[in-house]
UniProtKB/TrEMBL annotation:
The lineage of its organism: Bacteria, Pseudomonadati, Bacteroidota, Saprospiria, Saprospirales. Pfam families: Wzy_C. It is found in: Membrane. This is O-antigen ligase-related domain-containing protein. Keywords: Membrane, Transmembrane, Transmembrane helix. It is a multi-pass membrane protein. The keyword Membrane applies. It comes from Neolewinella antarctica.
């Protein structure tokens, strides 16, 4: 515990003296260290979806980086392989809830740098509102894990994180966090795991997204515009349809991928700006190749159907909604990219309630 406290203090210091980019590495450093500190068993997954799907993603992406990627693309290789190997450790090692509380407290401290600046939305050391919104979504998952077994505190997280998300003005991620809370607490009230329903909903989200970018026959954009509060009410897809079709054309030209982390360089030829595809699945296909996308979908759908708990299943579905409108490279060195995979291993079954928590809960209950 003393070593973790030292790391915690170091991470806080590093976060506040580092650059905007450095803060993201400080966050992930704490998570990786939690694995190492707790790691006492093997780092091998027993999930065929992870081994086959993740392996296909990894091999295809490595080949794309070797064949097409510039030097900047190679910086992803080490961390992608490392994360692929160490993430399964969460399934074999128990994480004390107190560790997660410290992690959540640390991230919340960084979120307090949020600054609402007129029509520009929220800004923070995470760089832009979309990054900030995704950090809030991911932290809400860790917070519910940290307060496992304490329903009142979990319920308290709803207004805390929903309020933070509202300040970012991110429409899709506000919908995602509300969906996450609704699915999780709804299943708990029903006392059942709607795994098959979640699986069908995951497929349905892909279908609805396809209709959205190909003409919007159900007038989804119109409904969103009418019910959006704030300066983003007038916006539509914000060129996400253009970015998607540009990504499809890049995949046609480079079916084996262009290398990790460089999709923006190729999209520049289409829109005159180095934007990401703003879609995680498109980003995976562009950078790692079509085979990498097949592997990632196999990993996501296979593990969603077989290995999820009530909490992780709800979060993965919500995060998938976010992934249709924002982009991350799975397994790379960032908090967001790790949370694309991490919930399959770090869930309710991975967390133990510390003796301090149980004792304090007993004191509150007995009034002693």
């Amino acid at each position: 515990m003393s070593k973790l406290l030292i790391l915690y203090i170091w991470a806080l210091t590093f976060a506040h003296i580092g650059s905007l980019g450095a803060i993201r590495y400080a966050v992930i450093a704490v998570i990786v260290t939690l694995i190492i500190v707790q790691g006492r068993k093997g780092f091998i997954s027993n999930s065929w979806a992870y081994n086959i799907g993740g392996g296909l993603y990894l091999i295809s992406g490595l080949l794309a980086t070797i064949l097409e990627g510039p030097a900047s693309s190679w910086s992803y290789v080490f961390f992608t392989v490392l994360n692929f190997l160490i993430l399964p450790a969460y399934a074999f090692n128990k994480i004390p809830s107190s560790y997660l509380m410290m992690l959540v407290g640390y991230i919340l401290l960084t979120l307090l740098t949020m600054n609402v600046n007129g029509v520009k939305g929220a800004a923070s050391m995470y760089g832009n509102p979309n990054n900030l919104a995704t950090i809030i979504l991911c932290t809400s998952y860790l917070a519910l894990l940290a307060f496992k077994g304490r329903t009142a505190l979990q319920v308290l997280m709803i207004p805390v994180f929903t309020g933070l998300m509202f300040l970012t003005s991110s429409r899709t991620q506000l919908a995602a966090i509300l969906l996450f809370f609704g699915l999780y607490f709804g299943q708990r009230l029903l006392r059942t795991h709607l795994k098959k329903v979640l699986f069908v909903a995951l497929i349905a989200s892909f279908v609805l997204y396809a209709t959205l970018v190909t003409g919007d026959p159900f007038n989804i954009i119109g409904v969103v515009q009418e019910n959006t509060i704030g300066h983003k009410g007038y916006r539509g897809l914000s060129e996400r349809d253009v970015l998607l079709f540009a990504s499809i054309d890049i995949c046609r030209r480079f079916p084996f991928g262009v290398g990790w982390g460089v999709s923006g360089l190729y999209i520049y030829d289409y829109i005159g700006d180095t934007l990401s595809p703003h879609n995680t699945f498109a980003k995976v296909a562009v950078e790692g190749g079509v085979a990498a996308l097949v592997g990632y979908l196999m990993l996501l759908l296979g593990m969603m159907y077989r290995n999820t708990t009530i909490l992780s299943g709800s979060f993965v579905l919500a995060l998938t909604l976010r992934s249709l409108f924002e982009a991350s490279t799975p397994f790379s060195l960032s908090f967001v990219s790790m949370m694309l995979i991490l919930p399959f291993f770090l869930n309710e079954n991975s967390v133990t309630i510390t003796s301090f928590q149980m004792k304090s809960k007993s004191i509150l209950k007995n009034g002693v």
